[in-house]
């Protein structure tokens, strides 16, 4: 990086700063650059984004608000679209998408989103959204009640030894068919 003042060299430093976010104080490690020639300090968008990410992370941790990646993981765990998940959460589709992409929800919405990670609360939210879910209601409810991810991953990566432990419990209706076809082509897993 070059100095925007002299096009010369810069050094990177940091200091701890306290910021107020939603009427609460947070201490963040802030990096900045110093021009070697003039001694003037400056930052850039990357540094500023890091400060905001750290600030958001502290706020989420303090209040138990799920991260964007957690929201996406929960949705993908059950094979749900963001549109379906927004209906379950009682949030508009565009707003839900913003939360999955990093926008910070209000505290009340953040806590509502956090409650979806509890299966009982998630099932209650699905029941409350029954009218909005329409024909998807039964499928979504069954996926969550079963507690298992939908069959959308590659079976080829699973060994026959795992079949005996997982398949009959997770997917009893297809267990025997699978055992006699694709599963039989894979060797026992060495424990």
Describe the structure.
With 191 residues, the chain is of the alpha+beta class. Helix content is 50%, strand content 14%. The protein contains ten helices and three strands. It has helices at residues 45-63, 68-77, 82-89, 93-100, 107-115, 119-128, 130-133, 137-146, 160-170, 175-180, and strands at 10-21, 24-35, 41-42. Strands 1-2-3 form a three-stranded antiparallel β-sheet, with helices on one face. β2 (24-35) and β3 form a beta hairpin. The N and C termini lie far apart (51 Å). 13% of the residues are buried.
Task: Describe what is shown at a glance.
The chain is of the alpha+beta class. The chain is 50% helix and 14% strand.
Architecture blueprint of SSEs:
Blueprint: E1 10-21, E2 24-35, E3 41-42, H1 45-63, H2 68-77, H3 82-89, H4 93-100, H5 107-115, H6 119-128, H7 130-133, H8 137-146, H9 160-170, H10 175-180
Antiparallel strand pairs: 1-2, 2-3
Helix pairs in contact: 3-4, 6-8
